[in-house]
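Hey, can you fold this one?
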Amino acid sequence: MQSDIRQDPTVDARASVPVISVVMAAYNGAGLIEETLASLTAQTFGDFEVIVVDDCSTDDTREVIRAWPDPRVRLVVMAKNGGPVKARNRGFAEARGRYIAALDHDDICRPDRFARQVAYLDSHPDTVLLGAAAELLTEGVVGPSSYAPTTTPALVAWLTCIENPLVWSSTMMRTEVARRLDPVTRPELLYAEDFDLYQRIQHFGAIARLDEALVLYRVHPGGVSKRFVDIMEAASVRVLTERYARLFDERAARVAGLIVQHSMAKRPVPDRAALATLGSALGVIQADFLATHACSAHDIRLIRWETARRWGDIGRAGLRAGTVRLGDVLAVRPDHLGLGYAGLEALLWSGFIGGVRRARRRMEQSRMAQTAG
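Sure. Predicted structure:
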């Protein structure tokens, strides 16, 4: 693999070891990467290096990086296209900082991101990975995300049991701990490699999140989350199947698939049986987590609230789609989740919408039967 390192003649960017190594995989990012790099130049904490690993872009990405005036930015060129996971692993191998900051080539950091995260990690030696809240940037408009608004380390740890709780571009981890993972991110779990990393790294210490939005996550049609949904979901099922094997044995893959499809991806459950299985599984997973983790009363309230919020979303999605009825939702609701945060009125309204959709489907089926006859 070829390394292309550009330096300002008056500044030796490699003369001292930086506190942070920013690792950025890039592929055909010429149109967006300048804004991302500008957000790094604007950081109030300046002791960092930026390792941009170009994965054989076919546009002007490499030329943009070579021309960038900040000597802290250096370019590593992959010998052949290998995908974002291999590119990031190459960047991790190049990292010299005490901390590794993740950043995709199209996302943007708020000016105090690095200062806030370094201060937290310096003062919390038991934390091995730290994320931050993120806002969504869609066609130039900044909006809120659907992630939990308030967290504790215990809540973040719980959420890793049922979803990906952190935006990758918001995370910072201890380099020495990351290198204990082999590899840091697993190529076979493409597009869920960050979710898998959170599962594995928490064996070495706590993961946490700052609840202030320190990153703008760009939402656009070319984003990975839009283009490779099937691959991402299949990899997420693999991650959760490994996690659930101890609890569910041969049923682990079935449970993982239900949680990925209907909680993470928010697709309506197909029927009452699937809804009941989901509720029962969430109860088992949550009970096991609370039995094996030290949680304060505040932690437990947050965990139960956020789980109930997801359960409410699952129930309402099924009601709106007309795949389950209100009686089904009430009959199978687990005691530990109740009705979810939505409340009875929201469920009634969702049930009404679902009833209309069922009636339309019946009418359409009737018309098709008459036409066929």
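Residues 2-227 form a domain with the Spore Coat Polysaccharide Biosynthesis Protein SpsA; Chain A fold (CATH 3.90.550.10). Let me know if you want another pass with a different chain boundary.
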